[in-house]
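re: the backbone from monday

yeah here it is again, tokenized this time
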């Protein structure tokens, strides 16, 4: 590593796998050197606050949190605030990599077995057809979970989302009741400029603000949307329901803030909080309908630890139901199929799988050369000042939320737009002479209120095997029809006067040619692109649904307790009854804050 001349009070070391080879051999030398600079920066490595994995845990704990991802990191940190409670956090992966702190490298750890579950869905008949029907779902497999590998966008959804939860059986989860928990987690750095204190909090663990760099093209997209009747707004988490904006993110001083960094590291020196990394939970141990322990596998050896109060499953939408099923909690027919003793017949475990789904369109900026964002100049700007393209996510920080012509409730929008391009993910150090290639970017319309429902179940009784994930994308035509309308608007946005005159934007010639002519798109073209070039979001929810006792499909009650099993809760995205109309990281953190509070109230 290339050390910072400033001293670091703790020894520097490298965390996580190298990203030098991610971009390909032509970039490897430059990326290796840049990574060495990153690994030598004390504020990025943060060695003094990293957790030390507990190799030999105690025999028993008051609380065992299963999964140290987006939700589990919050829950474990909050419970350990009570110094009288012993808390164990078990995480299947390692600590978050140093290089994940750089916002521009948000996808660098996708597809890596050390950091990504590498999940693929069952074969779809109407989606991801360019990938033989199998959709890729990147999911974080490390401390901090998917909050380490996502786009960091801070979006809460809309009031009607939560009021809908409460109206449909999730008593106590209306907007007015969840709003304080958003404030509790938040430390908004832009009160008075971008955000209002009426809607945002300060003093919480998570710094929230805009990235330190925005491409001019991103700003022009926001302005161009006004030509279509979507005026710019500074904050889509405030009173404005729809519009286009440069979003705030989970970032501070040019770096990503995962929940591990924001919650676990500040708690790492608490003697009552133990963290076990690289340990796979195989099941919870239940005796007479009460949780008494947790079984886990480390270095190929199966071990267990006793639980005196509660076990909290925070494995996420795809792993929490799997752990329940392996424990004998779920649909009886499924459990019997794999010779798992039925401890509690809960038909809803693994059902109600939902996800935002979209597509993407490629456009060419004929008036702009494809110059790299990552050069020696921009790299040194980041190393020295934590500014520039490496401190941001390119166009991914631009977001639009609108109502399509098919929307049913105008205070609950049904379309979100993401944009991709201008990222500093890869580079070779400079510009090789005059560049003839033109720059490209993508617009991705997303259906926020899909009607299709899927399911998750076991592939086998082996805890190391991935689950079967069947989202049933486009099994209901509603979201496909919404995407057709949203795609029309995407084309209109690209053809606005501001973007056309300044950048000479045209649909990329030959893009999705198997669907028709991208220059003269039809509704059939848009449908074909959606089904072939499907863009599943990382917003899976619903497989351990929260609901009232009268709801036979509910897995947990409104205090997130698993029905029929004492001392067991699920606290993560899987408990959401339906999707919020936005990104899901902020809602998951809210759920974790609220779940931890429920537990504290129970034992206060």
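seq for it, each position gets an aa:
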């Amino acid at each position: 590593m290339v050390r910072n001349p400033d001293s670091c009070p703790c020894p520097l070391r490298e965390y996580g796998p190298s990203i030098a080879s991610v971009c390909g051999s032509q970039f490897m030398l430059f990326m290796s050197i840049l990574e060495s600079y990153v690994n030598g920066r004390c504020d990025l490595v943060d060695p003094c606050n990293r957790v030390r994995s507990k190799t030999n845990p105690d025999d028993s704990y008051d609380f065992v949190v299963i999964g140290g991802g987006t939700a589990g990191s919050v829950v474990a940190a909050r419970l350990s605030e009570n110094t009288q409670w012993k808390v164990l956090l078990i995480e299947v992966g390692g600590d978050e990599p140093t290089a994940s702190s750089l916002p521009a490298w948000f996808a660098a750890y996708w597809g890596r077995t050390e950091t990504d579950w590498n999940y693929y869905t069952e074969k779809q008949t109407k989606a991801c057809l360019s990938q033989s029907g199998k959709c890729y779902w990147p999911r974080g497999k490390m401390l901090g979970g998917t909050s380490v590998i996502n786009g960091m966008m801070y979006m809460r959804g809309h009031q009607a989302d939560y009021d809908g939860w409460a109206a449909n059986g999730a008593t106590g989860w209306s907007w007015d009741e969840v709003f304080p928990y958003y404030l509790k987690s938040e430390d908004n750095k832009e009160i008075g400029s971008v955000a209002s204190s009426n809607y945002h909090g300060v003093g919480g663990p998570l710094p929230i603000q805009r990235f330190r760099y925005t491409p001019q093209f991103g700003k022009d997209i926001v302005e161009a949307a006004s030509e279509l009747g979507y005026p710019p707004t500074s904050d889509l988490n405030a009173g404005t329901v729809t519009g286009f904006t440069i979003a705030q993110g989970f970032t501070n001083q040019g770096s990503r803030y995962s929940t591990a960094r924001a919650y676990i590291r500040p708690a790492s020196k608490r003697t009552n909080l133990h963290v076990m990394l690289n340990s796979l939970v195989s099941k919870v141990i239940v005796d007479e309908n009460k949780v008494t322990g947790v079984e886990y596998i480390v270095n190929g050896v199966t071990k267990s630890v006793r639980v005196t109060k509660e076990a909290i499953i925070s494995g996420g939408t795809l792993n929490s139901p799997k752990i329940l099923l392996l424990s004998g909690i779920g649909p009886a027919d499924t459990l019997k199929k794999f010779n798992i003793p039925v401890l509690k017949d809960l038909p809803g475990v693994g059902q109600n799988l939902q996800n935002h789904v979209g597509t993407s369109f490629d456009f060419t900026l004929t008036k702009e050369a494809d110059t790299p964002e990552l050069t020696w100049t921009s790299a040194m700007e980041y190393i020295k000042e934590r500014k520039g393209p490496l401190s941001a996510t390119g166009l991914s920080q631009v977001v639009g939320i609108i109502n399509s012509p098919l929307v049913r409730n105008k205070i609950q929008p049904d379309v979100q737009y993401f944009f991709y391009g201008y990222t500093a993910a890869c580079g070779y150090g400079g510009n090789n002479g005059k560049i003839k290639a033109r720059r490209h970017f993508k617009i991705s319309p997303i259906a926020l209120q899909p009607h299709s429902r899927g399911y998750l179940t076991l592939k086998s009784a082996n805890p190391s095997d991935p689950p079967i994930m069947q989202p049933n994308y486009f099994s209901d035509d509603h979201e496909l029809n919404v995407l057709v309308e949203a795609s029309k608007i995407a084309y209109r946005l690209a053809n606005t006067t501001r973007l056309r005159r300044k950048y000479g934007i045209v649909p990329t010639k030959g893009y999705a040619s198997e669907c028709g002519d991208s220059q003269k798109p039809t509704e059939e073209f848009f449908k074909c692109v959606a089904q072939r070039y499907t863009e599943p979001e990382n917003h899976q929810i619903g497989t351990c649904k929260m609901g009232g006792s009268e709801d036979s499909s509910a897995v947990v009650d409104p205090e997130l307790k698993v029905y029929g099993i004492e001392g067991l809760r699920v606290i993560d995205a899987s408990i959401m009854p339906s999707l919020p109309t936005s990104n899901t990281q902020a809602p998951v953190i809210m759920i974790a804050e609220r779940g931890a509070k429920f537990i504290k109230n129970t034992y206060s």
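Residues 20 and 32 are 5 Å apart (CA to CA). The chain has a mean pLDDT of 97.
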